[in-house]
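Hypothesis: this fold can be encoded by more than one sequence.
Test: take the structure tokens below, design a sequence, compare later.
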């Protein structure tokens, strides 16, 4: 499957995960602390790939940054 490059606008950076283990151990606490759920954020790894599920996080290039989705997105 060919790769496609897409540009998107994201909101403020909320937090990041430094490694897969860090994601596993802190995901719930970080989302609760920032009062967001997965529908209100976009997670982007160091290579610019979106991480939407556990498989994506398992192959991500870290750090993975978590951004608030812009209003209306």
């Amino acid at each position: 499957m060919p790769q496609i490059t897409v540009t998107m606008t994201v909101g403020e950076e909320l937090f990041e995960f430094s490694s897969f283990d860090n994601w596993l151990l802190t995901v719930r606490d970080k989302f609760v602390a920032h009062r967001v759920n997965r529908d209100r954020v976009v997670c982007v790894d160091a290579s610019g790939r979106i991480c939407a599920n556990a498989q994506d996080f398992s192959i991500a290039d870290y750090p993975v940054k978590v951004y608030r989705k812009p209003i209306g997105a």
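The beta strands are 13-17, 41-44, 64-68. The longest strand covers residues 13-17.
Hypothesis status: open.
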